[in-house]
Amino acid sequence: MIEFNVNPGDRGYRVRVEGGAVAHGFADALAVLPPGPVAILSDSNVAPLYGEAARRSVEASGRKSFAVTVPAGEGSKSLEVFSRVLGEMLSGGADRTSSLLALGGGVVGDLGGFAASTFMRGIPFFMAPTSLLSQVDSSVGGKVAVNHTRSKNLIGLFAQPAGVLVDPAVLSTLPAEEYASGLAEGVKAAAILDAELFARMEAEREPIRARDPATLEAVISRCLRLKADVVEKDERETKGLREVLNFGHTVGHALETALGYGTIRHGEAVSAGMVAACRLAERTRGFQAGETARLETLLSFFGLPVRLPAGTDPGRVLAAMRGDKKKRGGALRFVLLERLGRAGPAEAVAEAQVLEVLRGIGA
Amino acid sequence: MIEFNVNPGDRGYRVRVEGGAVAHGFADALAVLPPGPVAILSDSNVAPLYGEAARRSVEASGRKSFAVTVPAGEGSKSLEVFSRVLGEMLSGGADRTSSLLALGGGVVGDLGGFAASTFMRGIPFFMAPTSLLSQVDSSVGGKVAVNHTRSKNLIGLFAQPAGVLVDPAVLSTLPAEEYASGLAEGVKAAAILDAELFARMEAEREPIRARDPATLEAVISRCLRLKADVVEKDERETKGLREVLNFGHTVGHALETALGYGTIRHGEAVSAGMVAACRLAERTRGFQAGETARLETLLSFFGLPVRLPAGTDPGRVLAAMRGDKKKRGGALRFVLLERLGRAGPAEAVAEAQVLEVLRGIGA
């Protein structure tokens, strides 16, 4: 078990990474919650697998609990489902002494964090992420949101959880593509912030791919600690420090938009986006081609794409990039590596160079 | 013009009370806002009266603006209207450098504050309250919310405005009953916190009733300052200090519920509720009957009810009180006066006494 504190702004919380915690119980981690009934928010995939174990931990902590289950998938981040969740919280007896346990992936974390933060002007929420993407990334960071019909994550808050429990053992039930997609954000954290972690992921790529809980405990907690370091210094994304976390995301988001959300997984898009960013860095800041090769090799080993999906029109990806909110003041913004483990923003990247790079990794 | 700072938690803001400010322009007060386009949120009553003046002030401050207008009335505090407001903000070109000017009464302030606080994880909002209720009370306090279909104000946040501009001159266009309803919260502030202000309101009851802007400038700013003092010490309602602000509200809320929301104005219900609380304090803590008489005289002069509406069943009011969220741990909770200008919570009030008091002021 590995534990550490995250202290953004005025409220700190504890992150525990422990293989097997969900099955063995984590009642003690829930001591940070108020005494009232706990709404266990989960989705239709996760609830049947881990809902009962979570209920036992909540009850063992001396609190009443009730289940709120939403359909699996991004569609549950709508205002309609949000409203239904609040209604079920009322029906379940939630009041100002209550809290919410978000048991699931990114959708459940985003929806649950937003619901808890606005229910009766805010009750605490506890994150128990069950996808690798949320374990390695979104469970720490303090961003929660639901979608507007016209814009993803438009309706949101910066809101810190009361605590986070990450159990890598639950990843065993994850579909292979979901698992790989999550690894992309882990590789990203290493690539931008920690060359040593990157080398470790290369060395331990086999047990990582095999989802070995002990290896993952160490790797995930290191990724989360790296992210927490950034978030602690820039809780509300006002100082530009969080921007490095967008490495691979300029092209990644554009790919998701150009292909249509849901066509490509977030981590897959980020994977190809990281390769694109490295190619761009080779051209603009002397990033070593050998380092790009190391990144590509690791991503490929994990089953992640290092080229654009077959048939992708680079022009459409560029167009989507122009529309992306990361673009400011007319110029495309990229996060580029100087070397593995060190990243920084690049202002005013020329569109012609981006297009060349996209063509270079096109299929 | 009277100005003062409010400093709850880590973010302070400035309140300006100035008769005629809306007509004369208040561009300088908007200097606290970020440089991007300002969404001027208003309702179908207020927009035609003051929308153009507000637009001129925003443009004079060097910012672009666009209008977002919702139907007047509590119905606009729905998730549907909230979603529509966010859509119109997108259409108007709002981004993270934008802000929102809430120009209207409590509904616009609540809806606008919540919309701004959740739009792209939060942009600043500026309050320009146009009803007396919002000028004297809700514009300071940091509570914003929309309604759930099953519960009023269920979906909300503690969120502080970037600034507040109160112009008593705009009250000239308010319907008489709306104006009186707002005075109830002003009388409340004096009754619980400031005997001197109460005496002043008695002495200046004529110019107050006549809506004299100079008199109102002084009275409103004093009421807001009193509220700010409480809010500064208990921003998130966690220390029980804000509870005194609920004077008159135990019976008031119950009356609104028992009669059906919209049947009686909030201030009217609070007015009768304050009289009930004083009668109760006479019985339980030796509050002087002469002070109750002073309160009743002042409220009556302002056209506010000091009895339950004709035909009200005291038993139904008591039943509604039991269901009220202010009730904790099985006992009815009241805020009672020790004397005019001094209030405190009363635990475990006997229902029989409450019923007697309600019968005593029944029609």
What brief labels describe this structure?
homodimer, 363 residues, alpha/beta, seven-stranded mixed beta sheet, two-stranded antiparallel ribbon, 14 helices
Structure description:
The first copy, chain A, has helices spanning 21-24, 46-60, 79-91, 106-118, 132-138, 176-193, 195-203, 205-209, 213-233, 249-259, 266-285, 289-301, 314-323, 351-360, and strands at 2-6, 13-17, 38-43, 65-70, 99-104, 125-129, 143-148, 151-158, 163-166, 332-339, 342-349. By secondary structure, chain A is α/β, with parallel strands linked by helices. Chain A has a seven-stranded mixed beta sheet with strand order 1-2-9-6-5-3-4, sandwiched between helices. In chain A, strands 7-8 form a two-stranded antiparallel sheet. In chain A, helix 10 (249-259) packs across helix 11 (266-285) and helix 11 (266-285) runs antiparallel to helix 12 (289-301). Chain A binds chain B through residues 10, 79, 82-83, 86-87, 90, 95-96, 117-122, 143, 145, 148-151, 154-158, 236-237, 325, and chain B through 10, 79, 82-83, 86-87, 90, 95-96, 117-122, 143, 145, 148-151, 154-158, 236-237, 325.
